[in-house]
């Protein structure tokens, strides 16, 4: 026997084994998918079970919107003059004129006292600032 005859026989043998493998693989795949389809449909409940007690739906009108009375208007305070020190802190705070309400007057002074401004440079800077309060409920 020559080498080419041996190679041809070997090739035929490999092709036959490949056909056999592909045939059994196809049959196995078909069997697997049929089983999955059969048992999958048995386990999968197509209609959900109905509830024993019905669900009640109650319709309620939307609540009426509450309207708040308008906030009382307070006339703006006259400008509050003060001086900025070189670090930007206000000092020498005073009201040019009282608003007539001592709580608002002291609140204006306290608000200015808590503010911080950019440094005006090496010398103090005089500033006048109007303060407006809005009273809310």
Any chance you could write out the topology, listing elements then pairs?
Blueprint: H1 3-43, E1 80-84, E2 90-91, H2 102-114, E3 125-129
Antiparallel strand pairs: 1-2, 1-3
Q: How much strand?
A: 5-15%
Structural class: mainly alpha
How many helical stretches?
Answer: 2
Number of E-type strands: 3
Series of H and E elements? HEEHE
Shape: elongated
Could you estimate the helical fraction of the residues in percent?
A: 25-40%
Computed over alpha carbons, the radius of gyration is: 46 Å
Sheet of most strands: 3 strands, antiparallel
Oligomer: single chain
Distance between the termini: 111 Å
General description of the model:
By secondary structure, this protein is mainly alpha-helical. Among the domains are: 1-44; 80-129, no CATH class. Helices cover 39% and strands 9% of the residues. It contains two helices and three strands, in the order H-E-E-H-E. The chain has helices spanning 3-43, 102-114, and strands spanning 80-84, 90-91, 125-129. A three-stranded antiparallel sheet has the order 2-1-3, with helices on one face. A hairpin with a 5-residue loop joins strand 1 and strand 2. It is elongated and about 125 Å long. The termini are far apart. The model has no long low-confidence stretch (mean pLDDT 79).
